[in-house]
Design a protein that fits this description.
single chain; 186 residues; alpha/beta; 48% helix
Length: 186
Amino acid sequence: MPANGSHLVLYPGSFDPMTHGHLDVIRRGRRLFDRLIVAVGSNPSKAHLFTLEERVEMANQLIEEVVQEEPDGADIEVRGYSGLTVDFAVEIGASAMLRGIRNLSDLQNEVQQAITNREVAGLESVFVVAGQSFAYTSSSLIKQITAMGRDLDALSTMCPPPVVEQLKKKKLAKHPLLESLTDIEG
């Protein structure tokens, strides 16, 4: 435990885009820890629909709404980062990493990563199981629907309204990632 007695948890992800499932994990994490940092990662080997700055901005907007709806809970902050997640966690003094689990496949991958993080940096992982309505939501699926779907308002069951609006803008602008998904599937 950190010297000041508070427990800081890091919730990392690409959040490209942020979903209702991500927000569910954040809400639940705020009930478990004293401080929560939503760490929006930049992975240069991964093609992103939104820039790091756009993802951080959207996350800040959505987190502000969460805090307004539920003022009681851990302090929360959004930070962008690049490099290894475990290094960022150690740098900020996190006592644990928060991860959402949707299914058995997630669990298998996350347990392997959790063991590595504990061995490499002494960092524990805390898993919360996704609510039933979020079990099959993924950012990849959302991008596919955005690329090929006609009515993007249908995404409101998976993403908050500000995210759906940003997805519409990316589709209208013919973002290269969305265009490549259309080429692959078409």
